[in-house]
């Protein structure tokens, strides 16, 4: 298996090859996912929800993120690993440098930040100091208390235009990857076509350069609720390894997400 780097992800975009990624929080799952061909893993602050049983990602700390990043790196020494910067750990550029450095020391190859134009100075500063950045637009779970719930974003033309403008600003600031969460499929396509960096969608339609799912959704682990954009691959396959493999194959073939997983 060839090593994944930001350059190889960029090449995949240029060649029209879909990128398949999953969130990971521990060594065993990180090893299994990597063996099944997942292109990269995100140590998401969604661990607040799926590991810690919280109702939002807001209480997740830098220490939590460092701990889980260390474990994922231990399980998959060669993998490309992105670590989420938790709520308020990048409130100022100076804070972001110190906190991102902790995540890089724990084994991350890149850090992810949620937000729009207010992050341009931070992203520029991180990139200049040798820390690759993944931006995150659309639904921003760390801002749930401002948004007032987990809602699809960018449905109105003005909001859609603003999201595209922010994506271009963050790319110009030095972001090398962009996660787009819960936006209409048409907007996911438009942003992907306008940007030169790869876009990774979660509920952003089939036309982003890649897809990401929270591991627990991919495995149908919450029997009470499966988000519209997710699919239980374990139910279709019967083993953990084949669930990850099947997900990767369906993303690569453009079969996932299907129309029923997309927002209009
Ligand atoms: O924390 C997370 O798992 C994420 C994904 C939803 C992309 O940010």
Q: What order do the SSEs take from the amino end to the carboxyl end, as H and E?
A: HEHEHHEHEHEHHEHEEHHH
The number of helical elements comes to 12
CATH structural fold name? TIM Barrel
Helical fraction equals 40-55%
Strand order of the largest sheet: 1-2-3-4-5-6-7-8
* Ligands bound, unique: 3-methyl-2-oxobutanoic acid
Mean pLDDT: 97
The CATH class turns out to be Alpha Beta
Q: How many domains, as an integer? A: 1
What is the number of beta strands?
8
Instruction: Give the structural class.
Output: alpha/beta
The major β-sheet equals: 8 strands, parallel, barrel
In CATH terms, the superfamily is Phosphoenolpyruvate-binding domains
Strand content: 5-15%
Instruction: Using the alpha-carbon principal axes, give the shape.
Output: globular
The CATH architecture category equals: Alpha-Beta Barrel
Poorly predicted tracts of residues:
none
């Amino acid at each position: 298996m060839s090593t994944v780097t930001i350059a190889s992800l960029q090449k995949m975009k240029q060649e029209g090859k879909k990128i398949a990624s999953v969130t990971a929080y521990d060594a065993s799952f990180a090893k299994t996912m990597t063996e099944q061909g997942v292109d990269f893993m995100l140590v998401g602050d969604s661990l607040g929800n799926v590991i810690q049983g919280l109702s939002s990602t807001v209480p997740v700390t830098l220490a939590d993120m460092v701990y889980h990043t260390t474990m994922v790196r231990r399980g998959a020494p060669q993998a490309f690993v992105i670590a989420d910067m938790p709520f308020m750990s990048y409130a100022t550029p100076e804070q972001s440098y110190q906190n991102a450095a902790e995540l890089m020391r724990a084994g991350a190859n890149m850090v992810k930040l949620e937000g729009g134009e207010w992050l341009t100075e931070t992203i520029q500063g991180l990139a200049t100091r040798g820390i690759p950045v993944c931006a995150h637009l659309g639904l921003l779970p760390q801002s749930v208390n401002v948004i007032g719930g987990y809602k699809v974003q960018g449905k109105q033309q003005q909001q859609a235009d603003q999201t595209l403008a922010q994506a271009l600003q963050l790319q110009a600031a030095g972001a090398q990857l962009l996660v787009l969460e819960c936006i209409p499929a048409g907007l996911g396509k438009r942003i992907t076509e306008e940007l030169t960096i790869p876009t990774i969608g979660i509920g952003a339609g089939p036309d982003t350069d890649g897809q990401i799912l929270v591991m627990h959704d991919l495995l149908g682990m919450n029997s009470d609720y499966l988000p519209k954009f997710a699919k239980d691959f374990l139910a279709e396959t019967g083993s953990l390894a084949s669930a990850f493999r099947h997900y990767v194959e369906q993303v690569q073939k453009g079969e996932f997400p299907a129309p029923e997983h997309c927002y209009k």
